[in-house]
Design a protein that fits this description.
Elements: H1 2-18, E1 39-43, H2 48-52, E2 60-64, H3 67-75, E3 81-85, H4 86-95, E4 99-101, E5 107-116, H5 120-134, H6 137-145, E6 170-175, E7 178-179, E8 183-185, E9 191-192, H7 194-205, E10 209-214, H8 220-226, E11 231-237, E12 246-262
Parallel strand pairs: 1-2, 1-3, 6-10, 6-11
Antiparallel strand pairs: 3-12, 4-12, 5-11, 5-12, 7-8, 8-9
């Protein structure tokens, strides 16, 4: 009996030590340095590790298919934190009372739409996006899609161009739709969000119709490479590595890589 009790005690001690603290206590996070050795969840196909590893050593990256799956993993203790783009991280934390946004970003980041390298769509799309930046359209869209008033969150009905006829073709935009408020599925089952709104407006200004194709993030760049999509996005980071094979329309938003943790693990 004594040997059995001893064995159970040792196993319990090993279990609780593996959970990140003495006596079963989880490690609290007060600075980025506290994530040394942590298990951080990311979306499959995302490149957050490229941004995080130079800042936080020894991170164990684990991958999931959606922010909802990552939230469940953190709440269940299977991961210590979630890495997301800042707008998406804020939205996720707001939707889950047990989670909180960590106050320091792991890295600055810029998001854009990927297009085939050397395409005129990239050139013309950037010209339109720059007009949106200069005339305040992007600022207006941020206030709508990142705001709390859901009644304003609807795609625009554009009619200011008398010569619009869609004769320039159809822009097939493949996007990850698990990244609210950037791109997600609305109440009517169609993609909506900040980036969806921008793409709608770019297509209209280029005299193109637009078709939205929901797709897992990991499949976006392969879809572009194969020609199944003419533009792809969904909080897609503009990186030097990606720019070797694609061009970007953007940035459409400049933010950062944010971390989301359980509220009971946020240190002071």
């Amino acid at each position: 009996m004594n040997r059995w009790i001893c064995a159970v005690t040792v196993m319990a001690a090993l279990f609780f030590t593996g959970c990140g603290g003495k006596g079963g206590e989880k490690k609290a996070f007060a600075s980025l340095a506290d994530f040394d050795g942590a298990k951080i969840a990311s979306l499959s196909g995302a490149v957050f590790a490229d941004f995080i590893d130079p800042v936080i050593p020894n991170v164990n990256h684990v991958y999931y298919n959606s922010p909802a799956d990552m939230a469940q993993a953190v709440m269940a203790g299977r991961a210590d934190a979630i890495a997301l783009d800042m707008p998406v991280a804020k939205y996720l934390a707001a939707q889950h009372p047990g989670l909180v946004l960590f106050p320091y970003v792991a890295a600055d980041d810029r998001y854009g739409f990927a297009v085939t390298k050397g395409s005129q769509l990239g050139v013309k799309g950037n010209e339109v996006l720059e007009r949106f930046r200069e005339d305040g359209t992007l600022t207006k869209l941020e206030s709508i899609w990142f705001g709390a008033d859901n009644s304003k969150k609807a795609l625009p009905v554009l009619s200011h161009r008398a010569d619009f006829n869609g004769s320039a073709g159809t822009l097939r935009y493949a996007c990850d739709v698990t990244s609210a408020p950037m791109s997600y599925i609305g109440s009517d089952g169609s993609p909506v969000g900040y980036e969806i709104d921008i793409v709608s407006r770019i297509a209209y200004e280029l005299n193109m119709n637009v078709e939205f194709v929901p797709m897992a993030f990991s499949g976006l760049l392969p879809a572009l490479a194969s020609g199944r999509a003419g533009m792809v996005g969904g909080s897609m980071s503009i990186t030097e590595e990606r720019k070797k094979s694609v061009d970007f329309i953007g940035p459409n938003f400049e933010g950062g890589i944010a971390l989301v943790v359980r509220k009971d693990r946020l240190g002071k």
